[in-house]
Amino acid sequence: MWRLTCHPRGYSLVDVMAFPVLTLMRGSAGLSLAIRRSTRSLSMFLQWDERDWGRIILNAEKVVGYPTSYLSLRSLLSDEAANIALHLKKLLGSHHPLISTAKALMTGEREMSQLRGLMILLLSKTAGGSQPLSIQQRSLAEVVETIHLAQLIHMGIQDQQDDIPSGDDALGNRMATLSGDYFLAQASHSLALLNSTKVVELMSGAIRDFSLSWFVKQPESQEEWEEKAYLRRGSLLANGFQAALTLANASTYLQAQAFVLGSRLAAAWQGESSFKVDYSLVQLRIAEVKDILWRDFPDSDARLAFWNVMLGLTGLETKNISI
After folding, report:
1. How confident is the model over 147-187, as pLDDT tens digits?
2. Residue 12: inside a domain, yes or no?
3. Please, what's the b/e burial string for 252-269 (b: 16 or more CB within 10 A of its CB; e: otherwise)?
4. Does residue 305 sit within a domain?
5. What letter would DSSP give residue 96?
6. Rounded-to-integer distance, Cα 299 and Cα 302, Å
7. Which residues contact residue 81 at a Cβ distance below 8 angstroms, ignoring those fewer than 6 apart?
8. Residue 81 near residue 180 (C-beta atoms within 8 A)
């Protein structure tokens, strides 16, 4: 079962002893029953709050050597981004998703936080040992966050093929399309500066997969859900992880394992927030992540921090109790 332990280097969520296929208990009645059945270590999960999550992120940022909360800030502070923000005023009062995305960006909601870039840097640090992170690796983390921002904006484009769009909807769609494309152009420019055709190929594949996800039918099975989830979100993390180890000059085997690690982590991350997915899939993917981390990457503060952030992302530190 899941156990919360204290690691010699500090507060940790490490020590997943086994990964049984369990049923996620939702609702107040299920939660009460879960609490009554839980062990002392499981009950500790219930006491977690945003302060604990903040400590995990703070520790992870200490490991990588600098704060990662504003990895995409360079793109956001450009003249073009300022012009986009100016035009956003025209949409105030409307219900276009672009406004919600902008608000989430400004308030720092977890979906908008720079966690993908942080995971890229933690994995790079794990593979690199005592070597400091290179400028290229930091730039890659910025690229991943910028691509993610562009994807979130593009996801706000409303499908209006059956309706006559209102003025606000049409304007919002144009702004979402152009602003998302702008951030993708910024990311592409930064990719070119890395001087690595392999990295450009990998990250271009992530952008391609996101575009393909719009042409995949609504999933009717768990397998179809995983396929679409990979195209929509998983490909960016998987290719980002492989690109990070490519820049670290890791072995071909380790680069391939990094790709698998990213795809499994993304599936667990998305599955945690989806009511269409059996929670046993989340636990299975977490088990696969742990297996790769502990088998192929050396024990280090970076590996521990990576693991702790991953458990936080998949919800185990707050509300999801499995018995």
Report:
1. 998 998 888 887 766 555 566 677 778 888 888 898 899 99
2. yes
3. eebbebbbbbbbbbbbbb
4. yes
5. -
6. 8
7. 75, 179, 182
8. no
Instruction: Enter the pTM of the model.
Output: 0.75
Range of the domain at 210: 6-313
Closest CA to 300 of 65, 116, 63, 138: 63
Which H or E run includes 10? strand 10-11
Q: How far is CA 197 from the centre of its chain?
A: 24
CB 98 within 8 A of CB 85: no
Give 322's strand partners. 24
Tell me which residue of 314, 308, 318, 321 sits closest to 15, measured CA to CA.
308
- Residue type present at position 183: F
Mean pLDDT of 304-315: 88
Inter-residue contact 56 to 63 (CB < 8 Å): no
Residue 120: strand, helix, or coil: helix
The residue assigned the tokens 């989806």 is 274
Q: How confident is the model at residue 320 (pLDDT cuts 50, 70, 90)?
A: very low
Other CB atoms closer than 10 Å to residue 207's CB: what's the count? 19
What are 281's two structure tokens?
């899939």
Q: In the chain, what is the straight-line distance between the N-terminal and C-terminal CA atoms, in Å?
A: 8
d(CA 146, CA 158): 21
Tens of pLDDT, residue by residue over 37-60, are 333 333 333 344 556 888 998 999
Domains in the chain, number: 1
For residue 61, what is the domain's CATH number?
1.10.600.10
What does the pLDDT look like over 55-79, one tens digit per residue? Answer: 998 999 999 987 776 655 565 656 6
